[in-house]
Design goal:
single chain, alpha+beta, Alpha-Beta Plaits, 4-stranded antiparallel beta sheet, 6 helices, 4 strands, globular
């Protein structure tokens, strides 16, 4: 049997619905751990996960056996269910997400970026951050009515 090689890094980000600050300091480390477990089950190990009260950033290596959309769907769906089970009433993730490819040579840079989220968002709103990603990655199809819902 032949061997398929794959090394695809993804910087994934998505927020809570209407940017409600559901992710508290208490639940945050448990949420990160839970999300890492979901990714591990999808053969897509997390390299770094961090969040602020209204959104999360995840750097992971995408499995060759799963489509990105399926991995993201499972992370959002399962973590949403888990958060509700933890007593986070009314919790919902936004419908959309941002997923950006990361070169192997930039993995450490993105890890540091994700690690520094709390400091970063003292000065910049999530929408500004996403709009910078859109420019940096030359995203052509972006309709903010769908991304931000």
């Amino acid at each position: 049997m032949g061997q398929s090689l794959s090394q695809l890094y993804v910087h994934l980000t998505f927020g809570t619905k209407e940017r409600y600050p559901f992710i508290t300091e208490y639940i945050e480390p448990k949420l990160h751990s839970y999300m890492a477990g979901i990714l591990k089950n999808k053969e897509s190990p997390a390299l770094k996960i961090n969040s602020v009260p209204d959104h999360v950033h995840i750097l992971f290596r995408l499995s060759k056996n799963y489509a990105l959309a399926k991995v993201v769907e499972d992370v959002k769906k399962q973590s949403s269910k888990w958060l509700k089970e933890q007593g986070v009433n009314g919790f919902t993730w936004q419908i959309g997400y941002g997923a950006f490819s990361v070169s192997s040579s930039k993995v450490e840079v993105v890890k540091k970026y994700i690690l520094n989220q709390k400091q970063h968002h003292k000065f910049k709103k999530y929408k500004e951050e996403i709009e910078e990603f859109i420019k940096e990655y030359d995203v052509i199809e972006y309709d903010e009515r769908y991304f931000w819902s």
